[in-house]
Amino acid sequence: MASNILTSSIVGLDGHRVDVECDISPGLPAFTVVGLPDTAVQEARERVKGALRQSDLPFPRTHVTINLAPADLRKAGTHFDLPIAISVLTAHGDLPKRDPLERVLIGELALDGSLRPVTGALSTALMVKQLGIKELIVPEGNAAEASLVPDVDVRAAATLRDVVLHVTGTQCLLRTEHTAHPATTHNIIHPDLGSVRGQEFARRAIEVASAGGHNILMQGPPGSGKTLLARAFPSILPPLTHDEALDVTRIHSIAGKLPRDGFVSERPFRSPHHTASGIALVGGGSVPRPGEISLAHRGVLFLDEFPEFNRSVLENLRQPLEDGTVTISRANGTVSFPARFILLAAMNPCPCGYRTDPDRPCSCTQHQLHQYRKRISGPMLDRIDISIDVPSVPTERLVDLEPGEPSAAVRTRTCMARKRQVERYRDIGILTNAELTSDHVRRLIKQNDASRTLLRRAVDAYRLSARAYFRILKVSRTIADLDGTDGIEERHVAEALKYRQPI
Predict the structure, then answer these.
(1) What is the domain range of residue 80?
(2) Interior angle at CA 330, CA 329 and CA 333, nearest 5
(3) Domain check: are 375 and 319 in the same one?
(4) pLDDT digits over 318-357, tens only?
(5) 3-state class percentages of the chain: helix first, strand second, coil last, to nearest 5
(6) Buried b (16+ CB within 10 A) or exposed e, 445-478
(7) Side-chain half-sphere CA neighbours of 474 within 13 A
(8) Is pLDDT above 60 for 187?
């Protein structure tokens, strides 16, 4: 007798329906899996046989064929173990045959029959809701994650035998109640912005970047406070909204980087080393997985020692910075991952680091300086909204200066500015000023005559590109939001122009 059990295959961020069909036929003992399985799925044969044996459940001593349909969709991951085992038991007659649309199963089997958590449970739960399927059975470690999706009957199991008892109706698995995504709990400790003494201009610049979601580049000598400013940056970001948190949790689930509680409640802060490869940054692999820029979605990607990154690696960021998504093409298909992050970069002004330090002489030649600057292309710099100098603060001033404004006070202002943006762009589905296209800027941003004249003169004087023109307008709009005004005034444009310092 043939059987059919439903599960899912994760492609990009989405779960796709997969039918696990089992046929048991006479012949020499064999266990075959077809339907474009990868190595992990092929190895499920040994895990399933071991788990069935340790659970005192029978395994057919004839020819067993598993077909994962549709056959042209590549299958990857260990979550096929549980549905394969249940399909074999159903085909063998040990479990009742039911409508395939009754439930979806995912889970990795240990050799002792216990269930281990798998990646992509949230995407599978969203698929179950979309298809209108009644029930989703997951390992206990995935219950909290899957329960984020409302109107899905999530059942958590600890072992294969628990699932068998549930399917037969002998002992039902407990239902995991739907839980709304928790508010930000600040489990991750970031430095407080108040610990940054001096650097009032830089503090204001990162406040503007936080309020509008703008990319920012800080340049200054070693010890000027660039890294401390960057580490304190997440403490002034607004909390994740429910929809943002779901997106971020889904990405981290597929990447296998969810915290133990199954939620991502903080805005991500990713800080890859400058030796990171293009695939590590953008994502990829034979089965494409999210890279650092997608893991930083709705959060911050901090690139310290910016020019030390390989230039070809940095050029990979150009399209995601513009579009908010990254598309990965492979021979077996194309997938897209969201990548709407704030790029926060820091660099020295020259190879030795002291070109702008008044107390230490620079030892770099013009050729070395030219080669250092060439590591960052002009188009890449053009995609950065705010670029500032962070000068060193003399030691005697650091001792005398009072602590700066704390993060909590700054965060209140950025939250209010973000709220204005969400309300203004509600009809077009945009959350921040940084996401506006040039067409949106023309239609939605209001300027008075004085601000328009100042910006036109600046474009002519500094020979700014069209992209730079629109980015200055978006930064001006954020400054106006922090100021609580409806239109852009001359002082807003003047402040935005201060944040376009040459690199």
Answers:
(1) 3-176
(2) 85
(3) yes
(4) 999 999 999 988 777 788 999 999 999 999 999 999 998 8
(5) 40, 20, 40
(6) bebeeebeebbeebeeeeebeeebebbbbbbbbb
(7) 28
(8) no
